[in-house]
Write a structure and sequence with these properties.
The chain has 453 residues and is an alpha+beta fold. It has one domain (2-447): Cytochrome P450 (Cytochrome p450), CATH 1.10.630.10. The protein contains 21 helices and 12 strands. It has helices at 2-13, 15-26, 48-56, 64-67, 72-75, 85-95, 101-119, 130-146, 153-169, 172-175, 192-217, 225-231, 242-256, 258-273, 275-286, 294-298, 301-313, 346-349, 366-369, 390-407, 442-447, and strands at 29-32, 42-45, 62-63, 126-129, 323-325, 328-331, 334-337, 341-344, 408-412, 420-423, 426-429, 434-439. The strands form 4 sheets. It has a 5-stranded mixed beta sheet, sandwiched between helices. A hairpin with a 2-residue loop joins strand 10 (420-423) and strand 11 (426-429). Helix 14 (258-273) packs across helix 20 (390-407).
Length: 453
């Protein structure tokens, strides 16, 4: 009993160290117990061969709901993350179009506008915490682009409640509640679980009011994701229920807010910790001209390589969606029996020296000269359970980064290296990650950058 408990606590407190220590001791594949009391065996894989086998196992031979049950209180029982079979396929088909193609392009200008609005009052010499600014930007993008809400009383209430909830679940001790069901006791509003349930109820009331009003308005001109989902129909002509809509919105918020903000904090740190990378990026941005065009930004090769390399070292999630074996499956020559949870490990796959020479080094050039397979590079997971918001997240990263870097000269307030720390379901730079700001033209910025080595 103690070993599963200890391993679970190690994973909660310092997941990257736990995974790296296990890999150093046991190799590309290892087995632990990290899903709480009475936990099943969990097998982690990081070699491309094992990941390919794992992602190729047919869905009918796996149970995703049992392996991801810890998320149900947060996401809701109808979340795409918790669905299987036809239900999963139906929701995925309804959600996917809103995150790709022309729909994605329609969000570009709004993402840039939100970024400019939040950074508008930055002044020369100001010290800015990227750990506060990046979540602020990504949260506003979620509310306006995904929820389609505009500032007002409901917007304010929802933002306050969601911010409070998100602040709590990013604390290790609070998020531990979801791994240990015996701690999920409603002992009144003062108790941690009681507080969570009451706040969730308040959030749900606001979301359902928004859904009701949106259904009644029937405004076909709206392009936000909620409006598109309300009007979407499956192959049988059925629309999502209000509960399904609520669960998808909350899932998109929880999976797309703190995660993207965390990666953005990393990318700003890595660029400014490597002056030669910053120099080359500024040269590329200088070719855009005075008016920023979202589509031109999204096509910049070095900007894309910087985002890809950042996502390699610090992926959106450390692991792919866990999957429980129903009977017997074979992964990389080894058989795993019923009840075993299979976990392709993104963090370890991205740090294999066999795939990425000098894996600890930040080298965007890796992605300019080589294309990695979907089993070597999978920052958003892989296979039929990969993140539906992957394209949106990368698009958002590029636009936020380019918008800020085109308007401001930034410098790290502290030149000392940071280290990864856990914040909720993502890994962020330690400390506030403060930067000193000065507003300059691109030409002025270029004259102060070091010569390319």
């Amino acid at each position: 009993m103690m070993i599963p408990l200890i391993q679970t606590l190690q994973l909660i407190v310092n997941p990257t160290r736990f995974l790296e220590d296990c890999a150093a001791r046991y190799g590309d594949s290892f087995i632990v117990r990290v899903l709480g009391w009475n936990s099943p065996v969990v097998a982690f894989f990081s070699s491309p061969e094992a990941i390919a086998d794992c992602l190729a196992v047919p869905a009918k031979e796996l149970d995703f709901k049992k392996a991801t049950h810890v998320f149900q209180p947060l996401f809701g029982g109808n979340s795409l993350v918790l669905q299987e079979g036809r239900s999963h396929n139906r929701l995925r088909q309804l959600l996917m179009p809103t995150f790709h193609g022309d729909r994605l392009k329609a969000y570009g200008e709004l993402i840039c506008q939100i970024t400019q609005e939040i950074t508008r009052n930055w002044t020369a010499g100001a010290s800015i915490s990227m750990q506060q600014i990046m979540p602020n930007i990504t949260f506003e993008i979620i509310l306006q682009v995904v929820f389609g809400m505009t500032p007002g009383e409901r917007y304010k209430q929802l933002k306050e409640l969601l911010t409070s909830l998100l602040d709590d679940i990013t604390k290790p001790w609070y998020s531990s509640l979801f791994f240990f069901p015996p701690l999920q006791k409603d002992l009144g509003a003062w108790s941690p679980w009681g507080k969570f349930l009451r706040r969730r109820e308040e959030i749900d009331k606001l979301i359902y009011r928004e859904i009701d009003e949106r259904r009644l308005s029937k405004d076909v001109s709206r392009t936000d994701i909620l409006s598109l989902l309300i009007s979407a129909c499956d192959e049988n002509g059925q629309q999502m229920t209000d509960v399904e809509l609520r669960d998808q919105l909350i899932s998109l918020l929880l999976l797309g807010y703190e995660t993207t903000a965390g990666v953005l904090a990393w990318v700003f740190y890595l660029i400014h910790f490597h002056p030669e990378v910053k120099y080359r990026l500024m040269q590329e941005l200088d070719g855009l001209g005075d008016e920023l065009n979202p589509e031109e930004i999204s096509q910049l090769p070095y900007l894309s390589a910087i985002c890809q390399e950042t996502l390699r070292i610090h992926p959106i999630a450390l692991i792919c969606t866990p999957r429980m074996v129903n009977d017997i499956v074979e992964i990389a020559g080894n058989k795993f029996t019923s009840g075993t949870v299979l976990v392709p490990c993104i963090h370890l796959a991205h740090r294999r020296a066999e795939t990425y020479p000098e894996p600890e080094k930040f080298k965007p050039e890796r992605f300019l000269y080589r294309k990695f397979s979907s089993y070597e590079y999978l920052p958003f997971g892989g296979g039929y359970r990969s993140c539906i918001g992957a394209a949106f997240s990368i698009y958002e990263m590029k636009l936020v980064l380019a918008t800020i870097m085109s308007q401001f000269q930034l410098e790290l307030a502290d030149s000392r290296p940071v280290h990864p720390v856990r914040r909720g379901i993502t890994i962020v730079p330690s400390g506030d990650m403060r930067m000193v700001v000065s507003r300059k033209t691109r030409a002025e910025v270029q004259t102060q950058l070091p010569l390319q080595s």
